[in-house]
Structure formats: structure tokens, C-alpha cells
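With this grant's support, we have settled on a layout for protein records. A representative record follows, to show the layout.
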Amino acid sequence: MTPETSGQSPLTPSPEPQHPETSSAEVPSPAPIPDVRLDLFEGPVELLLYLVRKNELDVADVPVGRLTDDFLGVVRQATALDMGSTSDFLIMAAVLLRLKTRALLPRGPEEDLSTPTVSLEQIMDEFRRYQQVARMLSDKESERRLLYPRAGESPRARQAESEDVVALAAALKRVLAKLSPERVAQIAPPKVRLEDKIADLRRVMRERRSVDFEEVVTGTTVAEVIVLFIAVLELVRLGELRVHQQAEFGTIRLELREPDPAPNG
């Protein structure tokens, strides 16, 4: 395995443009996604994934776990969280992790090396569609907040919610690490649709009102875990779910969020 740069994090924040000093009452700008800096590669994580998929980089040499750990550390220290960029990075890391696990698994004598064990195109198509929808919803949510701010909502409350979403990201990593080789190397999985998983998650939450994230993804494939993770982020963004962690490294609870009361008048 290619060694990492000694004593240096493989994630280095991109330089931020300088802005005039702002009032302390203003919400801080979301932190940018840092570039990946390794001995074998330097650049955005999207390019890293592209090169791996084109077989121009050996996925076995990519320290995916270290990248994810360092990224979560950067996010935890940020004063504001860019939900879209955070989920983008984690999906990319999850796909890299699946590719790396597949590369390290022994293959059967009759297995065609050119046949993908899990359809990356299905995952990435859903991912691109999620990106477009999420950005549109984020813009709409920003407009709604200007017109109808939530009663009692404070920057501290938004920061706490951001931290719980980061905890959800860490839970995603744990779930993917626990998947059995049979689940990782499943041949010809059925198509996983984001819309279907959102509908399934809404049904479960209406029935249960509160459930562990790891319980939701128990017995699923890698593709299903990733799409379920996107579905959770989407419902959090829509204000339908709340992500809650009572203790550090504790279980992640998904809680049904009651709708805001209609404004009087």
C-alpha cells in the first residue's frame, strides 16, 4: 500500500476567499469540502473516485477509513455545516469503500471480472438526482425561513442538529464496515430507488415515531444502505425527521418531527 504523507492529514481545506468582517449575529458561511492530499493523489474526492473507477488508481492504496475519519474531524470543528457537501463526500467515500472491499474479496473461479457486483451507475444516478433535488429544496427552505422563521430556533439549536447529522455519518461508516462479504459482493442486486426508500422510511416513522438508524438498515445491501442514508438526509432537510444521539458513540435515533404550528393570523 502506498504510504500516506507522514504526519499530515490527507484532507487539506481549500483556501477560503477573504471577506470583510461581519456582525456576530450573522450565520457563519458553511465550511468548504477539503481536497484530498495523498502521496498517490491530490485533488477533490470526486476526481479520486473517477480515477479509481477508470482503473487509473488502485483502490487498495486509498485509505478510505482515514479519509472519512479526518473529514468528520474537519466537519466537527466547522462553525457551520454544508449539508449538501457533507452528504456528497460521504456518498463518494461509501462508494470507494465498497469498491475497496470488493477488490480485497476472493473471487470464484467462474466469476466474470468485468461484471460489476453492485451497480455503481444505479447508486450514482440516484446520487446525482438527489443532489439536484436537495439543492432545490435547500433554496426553497432558505426562502421559507426568511418568511416564516421557526419560533425559538437559534444558531445553537441549528449547530446541535448539524452535530447529530455528523454522528449519523459516522453511523453510516460503522454500518458499512459491519456488512458481511456476502452482502458486499451480492450479484445483480435489484434497482434501489430513492423515492421508494423515502416512502418506506416515512411509513416506518409514522408507525414507530422513533427508531435506531442501524435497525432501519439491518439486513440490507450496500446500495440500500447508501440510498437509505440519502433518504434520511432528505427527510431531515425537509424537516420531517430529527437525528438524535444521546451519548458520544451511542446509537443514532431517528425521530419523527412534528410539523410547525401554522402562524396565527
About this structure: The longest helix spans residues 120-147. The CA atoms of residues 50 and 189 lie 22 Å apart.
